[in-house]
Amino acid sequence: MKRLHLERLANPQLLALVAVLLINWLLFPNFFRITWQDGRLFGSVIDVLNRGAPVAILAIGMTAVIATKGVDLSVGAIMAVCGAVAATMVVAGYPTPVAVIAALAVGLACGLWNGFLVAVLDIQPIVATLVLMVAGRGIAQLITEGYIVTFNDPALIFIGTGSFLGFPMAAVIALVLMLLVTLLVRRTAIGLFIQAIGVNRAAASLAGIHSRMLLVLVYALSGFCAAIAGIIVAADIRGADANNSGLWLELDAILAVVIGGTSLLGGKFSIPLAVVGALIIQAMNTGILVSGFPPEFNLIVKAGMIILILMLQSPLVGTVMGFFKRDTRQAAPK
Amino acid sequence: MADGDYVLEARGVLKIFGNHIALDNVDFGLRSGEVHALLGENGAGKSTLIKILTGAYQPDGGSVHVDGIEVSLDNPLHAQTFGIGTVYQEVNLLPNRSVAENLFLGHQPRRFGFVDFRRMEADARILLAHYDLHIDPSSELGTHSVAVQQIVAIARAVQLSGKVLILDEPTASLDRNEVERLFDVVRGLKAGGLAIIFITHFLDQVFAIADRVTVLRNGRLIETRPLDALSRTDVVRLMLGKDIAFSGATDVEPSETPDEVLLDFKGYGRKRSVLPFDLTIHKGEVIGVAGLLGSGRTEVARIMFGADPADQGEVTVNGKPTSLRSTSDAIRHGFGFCPEDRKAEGILGDLSVRENIVIALQGKLGWFKALNRDEQLEIAGRFGEAMDIRAASLDMPVKLLSGGNQQKVILSRWLATDPAFLILDEPTRGIDVGAHAEIVRTINRLREDGMAMLVISSELDEVVAYSSRIVVMRDREMVAELRGRNINPGVIVQAIANNTDEAVA
After folding, report:
1. B338 strand-pairing partners
2. Is residue A334 in some structural domain?
3. Which of B330, B348, B368 sits opposite A196 (nearest CB)?
4. Do A202 and B344 count as a contact with CB atoms less than 8 A apart?
5. Which terminus, N or C, of chain B has the lesser number of Cβ atoms within 10 Å?
6. Angle at CA B146, nearest 5°, toward B140 and B148?
7. CATH 3.40.50.300 in chain B, residues?
8. B311 contacts B337 by C-beta, under 8 angstroms
């Protein structure tokens, strides 16, 4: 039984994460050094957890969307909108909880809109979510009236920069959200239904699954996750930047999901592995930064690593690995 | 038999996959000017043999000969140069390109280095005329019926190869008239001296067109014989290695006192789909639905199941007025539906056999009453065994199973929901003889257990054998209801063809 668990941990995603961390360590020997200061942990690894949290949170919702054979391009823009809502509301004097709940509600509403376009109007997901991807930043600018809205509300700032048991708040939020959503889909039949819709929506509907309602909810979840990420990013910089908050993060989130082994063709999915995917991406970003390479290398190294990770997941490599595995197994009984 | 007169021959062919012997010392000879049927249950080795004859696989032993000379076929393109062409069940042409382009793709007539469209279309017109096909060569292929696309595929294959034509289940998605049309083409090619290998699950078609038959079973050659020396039962016996009995006439005794009414449809219909119909269904009754393809058979099923909800008329379930607005409404009232297009609407290909079996039951239970893995395995195992589903594991993707086993999975999916009324749309299409007999047996068993069923099928013999009553569809209208002991395929054909409604008493 124990061996089985070990084997399950030896998946390409975790191996890749370990490999990236080890490379970082080789390039920057202090990479694994963690210190305790002012009641919280400091260090590059902690930084990976902290900085990786927004994409990890986006990836949680994105995994569910992609598993239904969809995609949500609007999450970056929703982050900007929700950050703007939270920031302008605390500046206007609303209590922090009200501002946060309003921002979350706006994210949920954006997701419901996407879900309506995809599930009810049957618009292709990539086009349907493109609408809000483009319009979202405009809406965010309207809310902030074109300025970067800065704030000093300590409770809101805590969400982005605070700590819990020494760990960064953002990482704790991401972890809790991951556990909650994973339990929600795995302990109920929702996960199975999401896969069924992703594999064959027509057949799933004929088998009696409310595919329309489930699709709307999946996009709503994605919008909700984007709202959380947007609040964290705004709180982190103590301001809402309609132009740059969450810019291109939808692509990082999709990449994290794909690295996590969920196919863009829908079907089988894993939320924890998508979160690991987000950590891999952030570990590479942080590694390049701390090892002193010029940031121009960042994108190229990232592309190289991604190719490597995707190759590890390709069926061809799987066949070759399976071949070697079989050899060792046959040799074992002797 | 003299060796010299074979155009294409396989001698002692052996093919091994891992530790499974797919073909064991198989001999196969094809003469020019004959239609040679290749028969066998799924997994008997038909497609492996075909792939070796077309160069898609290399044999692990034995040899392939063309005109008596040993050849080594590297790939299907290489086989084409020896005159061997293949047409598959699912047309693999480009539906979004023109008919002419599909005919000449890869070797278009050129002029100054550019494709000469005018000549290509002229050539296409001449070529198609040979097949008595008068369509516009510049029209998009996808706009034509599957039958026409098949003929285009044949024309392309014959024109490219010209000596041997392999037809791999070309008729699986054609209706009766289209099959006839395709057979006319095949007969013409045969008269022209082409050697044709014909693979199908329909025995009627084998007897209608083939000259000789080769039967494979479990990778071994059982028999190659001229067909006129064989009866239908002989062929089935060769394929299965055992006797199975197909009863010809109805053996369902119409009960004098029908059981209680389960469903009562009154003026039920849907605009632009099916004209309003009345139908009363009792418990323990199988209603057969006959009619040509496109007569509204499938539409009736979808309306009843709420997949395309009715917009007129009413229905009562167990005497209570009910509305069936969606599939989940129907399922809640104990309905189940095995759709006609298994691949597009039935199976969830990438999901496991287990998940495919429990999905409808789980859908009925809802989101929050999840069956855990053990419960799923228990349910899938129970129905898998009852239906004799042959899968290496319940956790393997269902798309890896044969058509017959996939159909049993979908049947199991509905049986797991303990339905009161099951709609089966072409439950035996495209599956092998063994699975076919089992599904027919299951229908009979379920009826005896008191389940009501509506079964749509093009196989009239089959419909007659298990139906208590038969309704006939024509032009989206329910035109006749046949009941009694005297139903036979002839009567049904008459009802389908007739313009005057008449109930046969």
Report:
1. B424
2. no
3. B348
4. yes
5. C
6. 65
7. 8-96+140-240, 247-334+420-505
8. no
pTM of the model: 0.73
Distance CA A258, CA A235 (A): 28
Indicate the class that CATH gives domain B8-96+140-240: alpha beta
User: Would you say residue A5 lies in a domain?
Assistant: no
Q: Look up residue B336 and give its two tokens.
A: 């189940």
Residue B254's CB is within 10 A of a number of other CB atoms, namely 13
| CATH number for A200 | 1.10.3470
Query: Residue A5: its pLDDT value, please?
Result: 57
Asked if B351's CB is within 8 angstroms of A199's CB, the reply is yes
Predicted interface score ipTM higher than 0.90: no
Q: Give the residue on B whose Cα is nearest the Cα of A209.
A: B363
Residue B489, Cβ density class (10 Å: 0-12 exposed, 13-18 middle, ≥19 buried): middle
Chain B closest CA to A288's CA: distance in Å? Answer: 39
Binary contact (B359, A195; C-beta < 8 A): no
Does some domain include residue A53? yes
Number of domains in chain A: 1
Residue of A nearest to B337 (CA): A206
Residues B312-354 have pLDDT tens digits of: 999 999 989 999 999 999 999 999 999 988 888 999 989 999 9
Instruction: Tell me the CATH number for domain B247-334+420-505.
Output: 3.40.50.300
Is residue A15 in some structural domain?
A: no
Sequence-distant (≥ 6) Cβ neighbours of residue B200 within 8 angstroms: B37, B39, B169, B170, B171, B172, B206
Judged by CB atoms closer than 8 Å, whether chains meet at B345 and A193 is answered as no
